[in-house]
Amino acid sequence: MANAGDLFIRIRGLEQRFESHQVLRGVDLDIYYGETLVLLGGSGGGKSVLLKHLPGLLKPRAGTIEVDGVEISQMQERDYGPIRKKISMMFQGGALFDSLTVAENVAFPLREQGLKDNTEIMRLVSEALDIVRLPGQEQKLPSDLSGGMRKRVALARAVVSRPACVLYDEPHAGLDPITADSIDHLIKDLQQNHGMTNVVITHEMRSVFRIADRVVFLKEGRVTWIGTPQELQNTRDPELRAFIEGDSGDPW
Ligand SMILES: Nc1ncnc2c1ncn2[C@@H]1O[C@H](COP(=O)(O)OP(=O)(O)O)[C@@H](O)[C@H]1O
Ligand SMILES: [Mg+2]
Questions:
Q1: Could you tell me if the CB of 40 is within 6 A of ligand 1?
Q2: Least-confidence region, from 24-33, 55-64, 234-243
Q3: What pLDDT score does 78 carry?
Q4: What's the confidence (pLDDT) of residue 251?
Q5: 48 lines ligand 1 (CB under 6 A)
Q6: Is 7 a residue whose pLDDT tops 90?
Q7: Taken in order 5, 228, 48, 107, is the CA torsion positive or negative?
Q8: Which ligand 1 atom is the nearest neighbour of the CA of 50?
Q9: Cβ proximity of 94 and 153 under 8 Å
């Protein structure tokens, strides 16, 4: 069993390109158990692409990714199951199946993992809905729910198999500030009360300062800055300052 602060994921020299477009140019990054890491950077800078490597949805062109000391990037597709159980992703936009109920959406990863016992599946679904503060919503359809509730269903789906780590791709996008706050509370709750490691892509500076233990800035396919929210607040780096001030805006 890992302890908070133990090294969890080690990324070295990660490169990715699509045809001739070089997106990641040698990313080095360590992620520790139990932390909330926020990934910042300009749009199109490769943040989503970076995240997709962690559960093996993309394979590096070069470089290594170790999860609990095991190099995952050369693994066969069929061996990724345990990694995806450990590292779960909440996709940009939530990506729920509109024709499936909330319960069927949340149960999806469990069925993919081969779980067949319906009583057990419904128990895990119910627990996941409790965690995201949507108890008893199993039979609703995504179209019955508000944008914030759909995000929470997507989060329930990401946590239903009790991963050690959740990756959030812009969980605040399109949400009003109060709903964004509630997502932040859930992210912190997962960290503090469920021992989850969180990696969050966001542009919401308010959220960054509320949830992050460490902030990583990605630029031109490399990590160019890592620090605490306090260090980010105090930085004199003009580019970071422009990013913080340009994106913070009027929070309400
Ligand atoms: N599957 C793909 N095929 C081709 N290009 C891609 C693919 N995924 C991402 N890209 C390109 O990689 C760049 C980085 O994308 P992305 O990681 O989504 O940026 P962001 O930092 O905004 O999340 C963009 O130019 C995007 O168009
Ligand atoms: Mg993105």
A1: no
A2: 234-243
A3: 86
A4: 43
A5: yes
A6: yes
A7: positive
A8: 17
A9: yes
C-alpha 203 to ligand 1 mean position (Å): 16
- Six-digit token pair at 69? 């000391």
Q: Does ligand 1 have an atom closer than 6 angstroms to the CB of 135? A: no
Average pLDDT of the segment spanning 88-97: 83
pTM over 0.85: yes
The one-letter amino acid code at 225 reads W
- Burial annotation 116-140 (CB, 10 A radius, 16+ → b, else e): eeeeebeebbbebbebbebeebbeb
Show contacts of 105-114: CB within 8 Å, 24+ apart. 105/142, 105/153, 105/157, 106/153, 106/156, 106/157, 106/160, 107/160, 108/157, 109/157, 109/160, 109/161, 110/160, 110/161, 113/81, 113/85, 113/161
pLDDT at 105: 97
pLDDT of residue 77: 86
pLDDT score recorded for residue 252: 40
Ligand 1 contact via 45 beta carbon (within 6 Å): yes
Atom 14 (ligand 1) nearest CA:
46
CA–CA separation, 130 and 123 (whole Å): 11
- Closest Cα to atom 8 of ligand 1: 49
Cα-based torsion angle of the residue sequence 27, 30, 35, 41 in order, rounded to the nearest 10 degrees? -10
Compute the distance between CA of residue 246 and CA of residue 147 in angstroms, rounded to an integer.
Answer: 25
**The amino acid at 94:** G
